[in-house]
Amino acid sequence: MRKQNHKGFNFSALSNNVVLLKESVGDSFYAASLVLIY
User: In the chain, what are the domain boundaries?
Assistant: First the structure.
């Protein structure tokens, strides 16, 4: 049970990291696309 709770905590942290990663990658991709357009 303790292991399951720990896993849930890691999953929550991982989800938050994925959201931040998507946002940062999205911004980088957007900037790169602007550079490629010009």
Answer: 1-38
Amino acid at position 29, single letter: F
The string of DSSP codes covering 1-38 is -HHHHHHHHHHHHHHHHHHHHHHHHHHHHHHHHHHHH-
Q: How far apart are CA 32 and CA 26, in angstroms?
A: 10
* pLDDT, tens only, 5-34: 566 667 788 888 888 888 889 898 888 898
Report CA Rg, the chain: 16
